[in-house]
Amino acid sequence: MEHSFIAWAKQRVSKLSQPEVGIGDDAAVLRASNRSRVVTTDSLCEGSHFLLAECGPRAVGRKLAGVNLSDLAAMAATPTDLFVSACLTKLPRRTKNSEPMMPATGGASNSKASLLPETTATGSSDGELSPSQVAVEIFEGIVEYAEKYGVSISGGDTNLWDGPLVVSMTAIGEAPEGGCWLRSGAKPGDHVVVTGELGGSILGRHLNVEPRIELAMLLRKEFLVHEATDISDGLGVDLLSLFTASRCGAEIELGKIPISDAARKLAMSSGRMAVDHALGDGEDFELLLAIPDSEMQRLPQELAGVRLTSIGRFVSRTGLWQRDGGKVRQLAPKGYVHGTSS
Amino acid sequence: MEHSFIAWAKQRVSKLSQPEVGIGDDAAVLRASNRSRVVTTDSLCEGSHFLLAECGPRAVGRKLAGVNLSDLAAMAATPTDLFVSACLTKLPRRTKNSEPMMPATGGASNSKASLLPETTATGSSDGELSPSQVAVEIFEGIVEYAEKYGVSISGGDTNLWDGPLVVSMTAIGEAPEGGCWLRSGAKPGDHVVVTGELGGSILGRHLNVEPRIELAMLLRKEFLVHEATDISDGLGVDLLSLFTASRCGAEIELGKIPISDAARKLAMSSGRMAVDHALGDGEDFELLLAIPDSEMQRLPQELAGVRLTSIGRFVSRTGLWQRDGGKVRQLAPKGYVHGTSS
Fold it and tell me: How many CB atoms lie under 10 A from the CB of residue B221?
């Protein structure tokens, strides 16, 4: 299937931003730039990061793009190019396919029909998708993000095998003027700031990742941020890795953590507190930032439509601490590095 | 395992060439360069591209690096950075491990022992490797190539799951002065030139890929090459994709194809001719070049220790043709896009 898929993909990306040389050669060529390049790579495995039968392949493509772009946002980089690699199960897959495969009109579906005849040949009405159809749907999910963030899909690789679905992406961006946000710059006294609301991503947000690209670029331009990471393993665990890199600790106030509706909903059935979900669930893909006190005065409560909340301070004493009125006690990070991932 | 593995990997690569920001942050930062960046990505799936139980994980790392670097060689790019992603089976794997896990001396093994205690905790003497051990061995295979070609290992991702082993790599390089070799530049009259000897890679060479990096850089600097690709699907198939991009055809003389000893050996048991193996086997990872007649006069028969052979000419008539004395007849490409891959 690779040759017909490449031909289709090449046509499908022709309206997106274009690299110097894109899909179809031995490698892609990205235009020279005087900025440093920022590069991240992340894979998603069926059964660990998604359930194909439940979410459908387009959601897999969206999530893949979302989590990789989230890493670039955490560096304050401007994304430019995506590279995709898919290991597709050889046999047809029975799966939900929320999007119509063959809309009545539109250039994309026409090119699908002409270049990937097998897409129509093997019936998909009963929810069975051929490897080509799975590949097309994953790609369409990625295209949604590429269009939204003005990024090229510049290359990739497809393989057929006997195993479940595995997708990998490498996302490339340009460093902002003055350099990226790194993990090692937090200073005692800096505010611990989180974007959005946390917890309960398993109820759906983990498949609809909103990478904080626009917010990060605004923050990088207008405010001094000492360091950043994105919340993928859970606030507690990611905070720990952040202040460990900076050789300090953090004191947070649990009452200040912005809790998502999903975390509250989950708490009703999980037997855990909503704040525990916010602290530990992971896959929030919000940003966790160290912002100096002087900047906090002028930081708005919301930027690019996203809430910004100070939940505590970085402190010179190492470890994660909970401040409750006058009392301070140690807090277990509790981040559940989610069941099956690393 | 991810945090201890990252700590180990960070130390392991400290003697390699270094990017501006490497392993351990949300993304890597590559130094600004005035050259265009060349980027390729390729995945390998257990059961399709390797048999873990037979070859061991270090060979998987070597092959992963080899095939990705081969794509950069086909662009005449200078490799700079490798990014690796691995989806590791959760349970211990019974596999050949040709290299000793714990040599008595040496910094690398010490750091292994101190940072990855589980590497020693779960016994490996009977050929069972924990996910961490598999990850370390794959990484060591990649390090071999990184050292040989002066490349950084700049980032990656590890995941545990229930499926077989999948590894992905993105290799980044810099374009040569004057630009990369593309697939669309062959002109009728150009010689069809191949490097090395072809066929029978399944007998071992497919696991010990020698990317033609040095040769490509010498050729790019000293000779005019109209286009290039690497032979991964088989000479016939790759030749077809090469001249299709250039809208021409090729006439080759079967008797001139350099046949490897492995192809001859395989022919003794396969019932096929050695030349068929050379034409169709794939995974040779040699280069296929279009070189103008004027350059052929001064092209040596060997460069950087690698044989260079003209096996025919590009012609204006489309299609793949076999010239045998005065007769010309059409030739089926026969490249077997190998059984289980795309």
Answer: 11
pTM value > 0.80: yes
Which residue of chain B is at minimal alpha-carbon distance from A42? Answer: B157
> Which of B161, B170, B180 shows the shortest C-beta gap to A45?
B161
Structure tokens at B309: 């052979």
Contact A75 B2 (CB under 8 A): no
Which residues lie closer than 8 Å to A193 by C-beta, 6 or more apart?
A288, A289, A290, A291, A296, A299, A308, A309, A310, A311
**How far is Cα A303 from Cα A214, in angstroms, rounded to an integer?**
9
Torsion B88-B90-B96-B101 (CA) sign: positive
Cβ-defined contact of A30 to B36 (cutoff 8 Å): yes
User: In chain B, which residues have their Cβ closer than 8 Å to the Cβ of A9?
Assistant: none
SS3 B287: strand
Measured between beta carbons, which residues in chain B are less than 8 angstroms from residue A23?
A: none
Tell me the ipTM for this assembly: 0.90
Q: Are B33 and A32 in contact (CB under 8 A)?
A: yes
Query: Do the beta carbons of residue A73 and residue A38 sit within 8 Å?
Result: no
- Residues constituting chain A: 342
Spatial contact of A91 and A247, defined as CB atoms under 8 Å apart: no
Computed on alpha carbons and rounded to an integer, the radius of gyration of chain A in Å comes to 21
Tens-level pLDDT at each residue, chain B (342 residues): 677 899 999 999 999 999 999 999 999 999 999 999 999 999 999 999 999 999 999 999 999 999 999 999 999 999 999 999 999 999 999 887 655 444 333 333 333 334 453 444 344 455 899 999 999 999 999 999 999 999 999 999 999 999 999 999 999 999 999 999 998 889 999 999 999 999 999 999 999 999 999 999 999 999 999 999 999 999 999 998 888 888 899 999 999 999 999 999 999 999 999 999 999 999 999 999 999 999 999 999 999 999 999 999 999 999 999 998 889 999 877 654 443 333
Paired tokens of A241 = 């890795």
With residue B30 as reference, give the H or E element that holds it: strand B28-30
Q: At what angle do helices A57-73 and A213-222 cross, to 10 degrees?
A: 10
Sheet strands side by side (includes B37-45): A28-30, B37-45, B166-174, B78-89, B152-161
